[in-house]
């Protein structure tokens, strides 16, 4: 017989006769090392394939009806995920924004917002959606403090008639004398006046009809990045109306943009001589925002309704 067989781990191994003396001592140790390496590899493979399960809510904000207002996903977390993973989740959701929440040491929550293509400094409708989710989770609380890097601390409250109120700092507005050519050519109707904020150019029109009739050239408007473009006018049935275009930062036309009303509300408050205003965002889905200017603060309120609640599975970290 030129070779022998031995069984190890359920497998039969063939051993040439010339190697028998060496194998008597070496084979068990070598096979043990092979088994240890195999176990380590299996554990590493298992770690790579581990998925985290995270809760997710999809909320329609600034509306009391599903399929209207602006949609946002809300993902409550115990601690922050890596930024590339949060961006990947937002891209997979492919909604206007995805908001992520983590509890902080002051008893409130830190909040971050991501569009499908980038992290956003401030998002009003996803904040309203987040407040809706938090008040469902904590029904005993009447107000919750949120914190964002660009805004600092601010408060969301339960309001009358099932409204949710957000208290934001005013966003400064400056007149523009030299209007960028991309803005003039990017809007099919020339605005009467133009203002600018850190977030967007504000194109002011004489009538609501003009705002509804504007056709944007999104390629030209994208060249105004990092700023977006909002068109606005006094409303026929609301105090003012607006539409919001943001091709460089997330999409074509935003259904409802809560954040820009921290600038629009003070602008129209000065022009109309009133502190409380009701605004309509005249997108295809439409949305209604209740605004109140109080010194250097702006309270923006709206309704919200849940469309979806579920679980997402993402790679473990």
TrEMBL record:
<dbReference type="GO" id="GO:0016853">
    <property type="term" value="F:isomerase activity"/>
</dbReference>
<protein>
    <submittedName>
        <fullName>PhzF family phenazine biosynthesis protein</fullName>
    </submittedName>
</protein>
<feature type="active site">
    <location>
        <position position="97"/>
    </location>
</feature>
<dbReference type="InterPro" id="IPR003719">
    <property type="entry name" value="Phenazine_PhzF-like"/>
</dbReference>
<dbReference type="Pfam" id="PF02567">
    <property type="entry name" value="PhzC-PhzF"/>
</dbReference>
<dbReference type="GO" id="GO:0005737">
    <property type="term" value="C:cytoplasm"/>
</dbReference>
<keyword id="KW-0413">Isomerase</keyword>
<comment type="similarity">
    <text>Belongs to the PhzF family.</text>
</comment>
């Amino acid at each position: 017989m030129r070779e022998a067989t031995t069984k190890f781990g359920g497998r039969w191994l063939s051993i040439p006769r010339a190697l028998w003396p060496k194998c008597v001592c070496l084979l068990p140790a070598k096979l043990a090392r092979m088994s240890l390496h195999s176990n380590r590899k299996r554990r590493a493979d298992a770690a790579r394939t581990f998925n985290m399960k995270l809760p997710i809510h999809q909320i329609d904000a600034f509306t009391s009806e599903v399929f209207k207002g602006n949609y946002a996903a809300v993902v409550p977390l115990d601690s922050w995920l890596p930024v590339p993973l949060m961006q990947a989740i937002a891209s997979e959701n492919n909604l206007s924004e995805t908001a992520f929440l983590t509890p902080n040491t002051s008893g409130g929550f830190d909040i971050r917002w991501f569009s499908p293509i980038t992290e956003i400094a401030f998002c009003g409708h996803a904040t309203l959606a987040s407040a809706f989710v938090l008040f469902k989770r904590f029904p005993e609380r009447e107000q919750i403090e949120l914190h964002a890097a660009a805004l600092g601390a601010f408060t969301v409250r339960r309001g009358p008639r099932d409204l949710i109120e957000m208290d934001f700092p005013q966003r400064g507005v400056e007149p523009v004398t030299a209007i960028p050519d991309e803005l003039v050519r990017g809007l099919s109707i020339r605005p009467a006046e133009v203002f600018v904020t850190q977030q967007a150019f504000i194109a002011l029109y004489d009538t609501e009809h003009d705002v509804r009739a504007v056709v944007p050239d999104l390629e030209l408007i994208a060249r105004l990045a990092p700023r977006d473009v909002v068109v606005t006018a006094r409303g026929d049935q609301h105090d003012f109306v607006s539409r919001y275009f943001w091709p460089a930062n997330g999409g074509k036309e935003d259904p409802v943009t809560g954040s820009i009303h921290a600038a629009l509300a003070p602008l129209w408050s000065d022009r109309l001589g009133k502190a409380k205003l009701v605004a309509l965002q005249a997108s295809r889905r439409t949305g209604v925002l209740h605004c109140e200017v109080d010194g250097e603060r702006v309270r923006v309120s709206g309704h919200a309704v849940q469309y979806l609640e579920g679980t997402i599975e993402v790679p473990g970290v």
